[in-house]
């Protein structure tokens, strides 16, 4: 009886702490296997090298620099972000997880993991891009905010689509087919905004892009949390 | 006093009937064994009882002192061991224990964990990654993780697969203990295990 | 021979003929856009039907998640198919008009971009459906996807074209919410909207019926 009571009281606070435990567990697994990290970073560095090599010392305009940066970030990220759910299904640990915690904690934990993965990718790729591509941003503050909101949007789309495709048959191809179209609004606004920040636009000029990124992310996260029970529970 | 009540469970996949109208009632101190030929849906029934799968029709309800439990109240109640239920192979036994204990909201009690490992004959392997375990040891460590929260309802799908004589003995001991005051559900065709179930369901 | 239960189908045939005649003969040319504006009598209803069909698909998807009845899944996927078809029609009619006014079939105007992304998003819905074999799983996962897809629709209809300043005329969806149309144009336009909606209902009913018969046939074969 006592145990039941305490478990009930706990469930209210358990959402965030359990999400954190799942995040921590995935981080631990990632450190051991380095599957997603390897995929993402190899992809990013290879693409960046190819692009930088073919361009040579030429100075590119913002019209080319902005989309190239986001293409490198986007495709490298998408090569690894599905792994977080696919791993649980392939190694048959998903059912184990289903028996110990509520679906929303799983979604939050995995979303946060993907977000951290994206941020660490950017932490490496953006400085490299600056060095290799003569990339300089006039409005750094607005650029960082775009990067931040864009990552949240991409991580949200990738996480919910990964959850869906991890339960389908042909996983690899399906992830791209489902996640790329929904990511396009994020990419379009992020590229548009980045172009403006390179050319030294004011913060208020980028506001509409930031608004799209922010509202799109909020919508995707909300609907994902609402629907995740149905994805996760068979 | 705990109770599980299943009413008219029917399962179909792609319009193919797996089984229909399975009903049973289990109270604390009772045990149930599910038998049936391969592919008859034993595992499907187990997954439905654990709420891992929604049946096409029918319900499974858990009661405590005659009050029905909500789905999120079942996490501390159920312990399951089955061939399709794996642990994290790249983590050590201790890391697995810490994760499952924390996520279940239990205090991380290393001494208790050691006791469980000893009992399953895995003494000294706490710090090894599970991928270095043999299949019999993996089956044993699954029992450790299924028992850390002392579940009221213990459900075992093929309880002794991959186990040697010693392992089988340990598992029989656990089953004997579980059915004294709590609830035990087995899915098996082994003659030696069927006798553990006071009630029996045959899916065909 | 009195009115049989199919009277509305004949009525619709006559009605649509009247709409076509009205679009070209009765409605006056628009002020700035001239005769090219006549395409709006067909282009806008297509876009409207597409949105309506996607909405219906999302509604049946919600229903399926609440009560897993494969009938709901059948309706959701049928509605999405028709929605996709009408999105293609809206894209084609829009592109023809763009050729006349902007001198190129495709210019990546925000509205063109939006409808193109929308096409991709719903194409992915069918890719998802064909990738899953177990019916219940297919129904559940594609219901989730259909709802996610639909919540992005407002971004494509309202937000992106507004923010990136589309050149697309906005006699209907504009910030003031006013209808900027001549009375005769408006009559034809509303008539066309009504006609297309009934047409949609007819196609939808037929497709659902066909899908149902296919399922029954499959069950018999088994």
How do the SSEs of chain A run, as a string of H and E? Answer: HHHHHHHHH
Number of domains of chain A: 1
Average the pLDDT over all residues of chain A and give the rounded result. 90
| Amino- and carboxy-terminal Cα gap of chain A | 30 Å
What number is the mean pLDDT of chain C? 89
Largest interface: A-C, 31 and 29 residues
Mind describing the biggest β-sheet of chain A?
none
Largest sheet of chain C: none
Number of domains of chain C: 1
Give an account of the 3D structure.
The complex is a heterotrimer of chains A (234), B (204) and C (222). Chain A has 234 residues and is an all-alpha fold. Chain A has 9 helices and no strands. The longest helix of chain A has 32 residues, at 2-33. Chain A starts with a helix and ends with a helix. Chain B has 204 residues and is an alpha/beta fold. Chain B has a 5-stranded parallel sheet with strand order 6-7-8-3-9, sandwiched between helices. The longest helix of chain B is centred in the C-terminal third of the chain and has 17 residues, at 165-181. The relative contact order of chain B is 0.22. The mean pLDDT of chain B is 93. With 222 residues, chain C is mostly helical. Chain C has one domain. The mean pLDDT of chain C is 89. The chains are: A mainly alpha (234), B alpha/beta (204), C mainly alpha (222). Chains in contact: A-B, A-C, B-C. At the A-C interface, α7, α8 and α9 of A face α4 and α5 of C.
Short description:
The complex is a heterotrimer of chains A (234), B (204) and C (222). Chain B is an alpha/beta fold and 204 residues long.
SSE inventory with pairings:
The complex is a heterotrimer of chains A (234), B (204) and C (222).
Chain A: H1 2-33, H2 35-55, H3 62-80, H4 83-90, H5 94-98, H6 103-133, H7 140-165, H8 171-198, H9 203-232
Helix pairs in contact in A: 1-6, 2-3, 2-6, 3-6, 3-8, 4-7, 6-7, 6-9, 7-8, 7-9, 8-9
Chain B: E1 2-13, E2 16-27, E3 31-35, H1 42-49, E4 57-64, E5 67-68, E6 78-81, H2 93-103, H3 110-119, H4 135-147, E7 153-157, H5 165-181, E8 183-187, H6 191-194, E9 199-202
Chain C: H1 7-26, H2 40-66, H3 70-102, H4 110-131, H5 135-163, H6 183-221
Helix pairs in contact in C: 1-6, 2-3, 2-5, 2-6, 3-4, 3-5, 3-6, 4-5
